[in-house]
Each structure stands twice: as C-alpha cells, then as structure tokens.
Amino acid sequence: MGFQDTPEEWQVTATETPFTGNKTSVRTDEVVMPDGTVVRRDYQVHPGSVAVLALDDDGRVVVLRQYRHPVRHKLWEIPAGLLDVPGENPLHAAQRELYEEAYVKAEDWRVLTDVYTTPGGCDEAVRIFLARNLSEADGERFEVSEEEADMELARVPLQELVRGVLAGELHNNCLVVGVLSLAAVLAGDGIESLRPAEAPWPARPFEA
User: Fold this and answer.
1) GO CC annotation: what is one (predicted)?
2) Which of the residues 101, 148, 160, 169 is marked catalytic?
3) Catalytic site residue 148?
4) Which H or E run includes 76?
5) Which among 7, 25, 50, 142 is most buried, taking Cβ atoms within 10 Å?
6) Model pTM?
7) What is the number of domains present in the chain?
8) 40 and 61 inside one domain
C-alpha cells in the first residue's frame, strides 16, 4: 500500500447543524473515540474548491491580489473558486475560474496536487491544477463585484514566488502548496509525471 493517507470513519452517535450560511455551514458531531468515550467535534462543512497554477511560456505564474477579510490582508493568490454544483467536474470548474479571474485559457491541464486545507476544523478539499500553453480567453470579460472588483493581476517568475513563500511573505494556502509542488516537480521527475487532468478525486467524486 505504501506511505499514504487512508479513508476511515469513526462512529458518530449524534449530529446537528447549528449554523447554515450561504456557501458553508457548521456541523457538530458526537464521535466515539478509541477508548469508548464520546467527544463533540465542531467543523465547517465546505463544498470543495479548485485552484489553478497557470504557468506561461516564460516561466511566470498568473497571480492575483485580493482582500481577505477574515485575516485582514490583501493576499497574492492563484485563481481559485468553489465547486458550486455537487458532483461538478473539477477541471471544468478550474477552467471557469481561470477565465473569470484572469481572462486566460490553457491548452494543457494536469493535476498538480490535492489537499485538505484545514482538516482539524474544516472538510474543505482542494484540487490544484497546473495549466500551461496559455492565451487570452475568448468572449466577454466576466463582470466582477465585491472583493474581486479591487483585484490586481500579475505574472511573477516561479522562483520569485518560491522565495516569497520561504521568506514568509506569501501566505495563501493554494499559492504556497502550488508553487512549492511545481518547484519539486521541476526538480524531480518533471511535468510529464503529473496525473492527468481527469484523474479520480475520492474527496470530491465527479462525473467526466
């Protein structure tokens, strides 16, 4: 089996949802521990997300700067968004987000990595794609609003982003995981070793 995470589900004796929001909710489960005791666990229920590390022919990554109210910061991020429809194909969602946030399309798509962002308090799963062979998207630009109306776009060399991550200057989860994963791939087995864009994703099953 190798060194890998494995699915497991401990017995839940009771559950309730004390809060339901627009996109996410909070759930409280009573979970049986290995010693037989029962404890309460509160966590955010999340539909899942996709993110796109879009790499151009000059080795630059498409990034955007957006205000994030919970942490009171403007963060440099890679294009990302929610899986709004249950069972939605994550590749299609990623292509949509790249178009809406960066007005870019890509010809080559691969799965870079899959992560649980904060598994101690949230069930959010994120699939991060690598997108290459970039060009300007077709059609009208997506009309932005709220935080996205103040968004800045840039293309930054991958190594500059790696330096910023290791220096503690860049903090967005998907950007950090994405750029370090790509740096590892380029230093190791190469992009051809990555999984195909339609690779199974047990955390968020989808139809092709």
Assistant:
1) cytosol
2) 148
3) yes
4) strand 73-77
5) 50
6) 0.93
7) 2
8) no
